[in-house]
Amino acid sequence: xxxxxxxxxxxxxxxxxxxxxxxxxxxxxxxxxxxxxxxxxxxxxxxxxxxxxxxxxxxxxxxxxxxxxxxxxxxxxxxxxxx
Length: 83
Description:
Radius of gyration: 25 Å
Helix content: 40-55%
Order of helices and strands: EEEH
Structural class: alpha+beta
């Protein structure tokens, strides 16, 4: 077998394998076989997804903090304005 053409077996879980994946082959035991390159690509995409989820969560938290603090800042601004 050529290097880089080794197979990595992954058990197919709910929603883990997309129907449009043509390079993945399902055998009789219910497992799906991917090449090493495909497995590495999936790992890279999973890491990228986690990074994007983290960025989204942080942005949502920052917005929530701003939304909660804005009325107080607005109130203080009018109290401190000279007449």
